[in-house]
């Protein structure tokens, strides 16, 4: 039986309605907890659910940050200045701390300290990682593109992964145990999902 469907033409929608439809449908979205240093050396940490892996040889990640009238958030300003960042994986135990770092605060505030986390330099790039995270990916910026229509645009940062740092308890060689990783994905609004509920399908020949 055919579904009853409502059609929305994007040209007829407000930016807020576009946001609600996009974030409600494209789920779950992995969370990139982006660690950077500001020009003054203050550690910055913020979660981005417009985050994804887009290549593997070499590995490349993207995170996208909104801009209002061209205003760059701290993470974007810092990666533009330094050219490096860490992408930290958020598990269920770190969900409250992650949420605390989602608030916009003055660039002089260290979000690691604000959320009770430990900023750790893992040694490959000059960007802080979350010592408590089960996985920290050190990245160098390789490209940035800006999408959207003023005044609301998005800067999409591409980062090449130069080192993976992974908790031994989630590893089997180079395979990851998704249940042990217990990563969070963002849904719409204030809702999240985890990688605990899993099923398998054999690939067709």
Walk me through what this model shows.
By secondary structure, the protein is an alpha+beta fold. It has one domain: Pnp Oxidase, Chain A, CATH 2.30.110.10. The protein has helices at 15-25, 74-82, 95-100, 111-114, 178-181; strands spanning 29-30, 32-37, 43-48, 51-56, 59-68, 84-88, 119-121, 128-130, 135-149, 152-166, 171-172, 175-176, 184-186, 192-194. The two termini are 30 Å apart. 30% of the residues are buried. The mean pLDDT is 95.
Strand content: 35-45%
Number of strands: 14
User: How do the helices and strands follow one another from N- to C-terminus?
Assistant: HEEEEEHEHHEEEEEEHEE
Structural class determined from secondary elements? alpha+beta
Shape: globular
User: How many discrete structural domains?
Assistant: 1
> Alpha-carbon distance between the termini?
30 Å
CATH architecture: Roll
Summarize the structure.
The chain is α+β, with helices and mostly antiparallel strands and 205 residues long.
Strand-helix topology:
Elements: H1 15-25, E1 29-30, E2 32-37, E3 43-48, E4 51-56, E5 59-68, H2 74-82, E6 84-88, H3 95-100, H4 111-114, E7 119-121, E8 128-130, E9 135-149, E10 152-166, E11 171-172, E12 175-176, H5 178-181, E13 184-186, E14 192-194
Antiparallel strand pairs: 1-13, 2-3, 2-6, 4-5, 5-10, 6-9, 7-8, 9-10, 11-12, 13-14
What attributes does this structure have?
Pnp Oxidase, Chain A, three-stranded antiparallel β-sheet, 205 residues, seven-stranded antiparallel β-sheet, 14 strands, single chain
């Amino acid at each position: 039986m055919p579904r009853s469907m409502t059609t929305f033409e994007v040209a007829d929608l407000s930016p807020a309605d576009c946001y609600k439809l996009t974030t409600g449908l494209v789920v779950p979205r992995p969370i990139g907890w982006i660690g950077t240093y500001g020009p003054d050396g203050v550690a910055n940490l913020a979660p981005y659910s417009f985050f994804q892996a887009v290549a593997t040889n070499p590995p490349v990640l993207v995170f996208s940050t909104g801009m209002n009238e061209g205003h760059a958030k701290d993470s974007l300003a810092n990666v533009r200045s330094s050219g490096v960042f860490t992408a930290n994986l958020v598990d269920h135990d770190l969900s409250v701390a992650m949420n605390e770092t989602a608030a916009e605060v003055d660039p002089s505030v260290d979000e690691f300290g604000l959320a009770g986390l430990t900023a750790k330099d893992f040694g490959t790039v000059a960007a802080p990682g979350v010592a408590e995270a089960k996985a920290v990916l050190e990245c160098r910026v390789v490209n940035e593109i800006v999408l959207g229509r003023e005044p609301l645009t998005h800067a999409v940062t591409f980062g090449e992964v130069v080192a993976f740092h992974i908790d031994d308890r989630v590893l089997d060689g180079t395979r990851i145990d998704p249940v042990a990783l217990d990563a969070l994905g963002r849904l719409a609004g204030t809702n999240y999902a985890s990688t605990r509920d899993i099923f398998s399908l054999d690939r067709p020949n």
